[in-house]
Design brief:
alpha+beta, single chain, about 25% helix, elongated
């Protein structure tokens, strides 16, 4: 059994985690001016992508299911990519989202014990 959710040429997507928080509550009666952040981590075989989505309304912030829709709609193409090509692909897909606050950080894995 593969340890990857989606296998790629030189690795794959190992895990996806997200956590949405309300950083600022805004107006106590209507919530205007409040701010939400969804911190998402996509673990690849060689890299870890940390993505932060932010906005005033939760409906404008991509969720786990929104990202999974991108992956499932492009599953066949993703399988034929390297991890570097996947990162470039994901940047283009993130640019298409309506969320205005998006930051992605790429961390290289230094070591992972093989079991």
């Amino acid at each position: 059994m593969s340890k990857c959710l989606i296998k790629m040429i030189d690795g794959g997507i190992v895990d996806i985690i997200d956590d949405i928080v309300q950083d600022s509550y805004g107006c106590p009666t209507c919530g205007y001016g409040g701010h939400y952040t969804n911190n998402m981590e996509i673990e690849l075989s060689k890299n870890i992508l940390e993505i932060e989505f932010g906005g005033m309304y939760t409906w404008d912030i991509p969720s786990y299911s929104d990202i999974m829709k991108i992956f499932t709609a492009n599953n066949d193409e993703i399988k034929d990519m390297t991890e570097e090509e996947f990162i470039d692909f994901l940047k283009l897909e993130l640019d298409k989202l309506s969320c205005e606050e998006i930051e992605m950080f790429i961390k290289k894995k230094n070591y992972k014990k093989n079991i």
